[in-house]
Amino acid sequence: MAMPWRQSLRLGTYLAKQKLLRREKFPILVELEPLFACNLKCAGCGKIQHPHDVLKQRMPVEQAVGAIEECGAPMVSIAGGEPLMHPQIDEIVRQLLDRNKIVFLCTNAVLLPKHLHKFTPHPNFAWMVHLDGLRERHDASVCKDGVFDQAVAAIRQVQAAGFRVMTNTTFFDLDSPQDVIDVLDYLNDELGVDHMQISPGYAYEKAPDQEHWLTVQQTHQLFAKAFAGGRRKKWRLNHSPLYLDFLEGKVDFRCTAWAIPSYSLKGWQRPCYLLDDGYTATYRELIEDTDWDSFGRGNDPRCANCMAHCGYEPTAVVATLGSLRETIRAAAG
Ligand code: SF4
Ligand code: SF4
Fold first, then answer.
1. Ligand 2 pocket check for 255: Cβ under 6 Å
2. Rg for the chain (alpha carbons), in Å?
3. What is the DSSP code (8-state) at residue 96?
4. pLDDT score, position 206
């Protein structure tokens, strides 16, 4: 089953407008990182390696909201670090919702029970909880025992309080197709989250664990086997069918990282949040001063095994809306 209808409708309207305005490059979703600090130390994380003085910084509310307004994206995914460690995170969320943005607040959920009272359910708001597998696998991924149980308890608590909950699961070469099936069945059927996001492990340059990234071939094999027999249709995945085809190796796309840019304490990250080739002060400068043709698989060796959502989901979404057949397929789920 595909993305939530409200999100699809909003996205469709926004993309139609970009086409009418003949814009070639535009933002669809911003990865907003208002801090890099976190309460966990996951081996695959590329954010918590920043120096201590950077980890202490928190982005002012006006700066966060101003960056989103300048770029004009309809959707914002707030990550970090752990956003719940930002003392004004609720105000950032509120101001973005007031500006009619669709907001996903990413969290490892450990601090969620303590901060839940600061938030109210809203049709354009969802919690996005990081869960990299079932108990043993997730606790190993975040390098701490007990976090899976804390995350599941927090999910049940926010569901009971009337919030939409999504999950984000990253798979590495330690995961088998059956692991993918088991965790998605659990999240979909047992925990009953609203939607699930999946990612092949990102090749973060700064992550301490550099051994378990997936190659393109491994990604194709993993998802082709996990999705076999039409299994993926029953899962409420927050992805376009074409992006899932891409993960399986049924189609190929070029990277359009300009559509899911990353804005952090350092500015707009070039070219995407996986690579770090400098920063610009505005989204406009990022678009105009970046040689986009020099990135993506086949163009930059660092991109060779990247199939990340931030580079390829936008290409899939635009291809979906450019084809009547794919639009009907996406709407059918
Ligand atoms: S929870 Fe997220 S931000 Fe925190 S260390 Fe893990 S991957 Fe990094
Ligand atoms: S392929 Fe695109 S999204 Fe992936 S690392 Fe390269 S520029 Fe970033």
1. yes
2. 18
3. H
4. 58
The answer to whether 214 and 305 have CB atoms below 8 angstroms apart is yes
Q: How far is the CA of 281 from the centre of ligand 1 (A)?
A: 25
- From the CA of 295, give the closest atom in ligand 2: 7
Residues written for the chain: 333
H-assigned helices in 99-146: 112-115, 135-141
Amino acid identity, position 157: Q
End-to-end CA distance of the chain: 4
Residues 6+ apart with CB under 8 A from 132: 138, 141, 142, 169, 170, 171
* Nearest CA residue ID for atom 3, ligand 2: 311
Whose atoms come closest to the Cα of 308: which ligand? Answer: 2
pLDDT confidence of residue 331: 67
Q: And the tokens for 207?
A: 């992550």
- d(C-alpha 228, C-alpha 248), whole Å: 10
Cα distances (Å, whole numbers) of residue 236 to 70, 127, 129, 187, 193: 32, 15, 15, 9, 8
Q: Helices 216-226 & 177-185, crossing angle to 10 degrees?
A: 50
Residue 87, pLDDT above cutoff 90: yes
166 residue type, one letter:
M
Say if residues 34 and 78 touch (Cβ distance below 8 Å).
yes
Model pLDDT, residue 322: 73
Residue-wise pLDDT tens digits, 296-313: 988 999 999 999 999 999
Q: How far is the CA of 247 from the centre of ligand 2 (A)?
A: 15
What are 278's two structure tokens? 């400098």
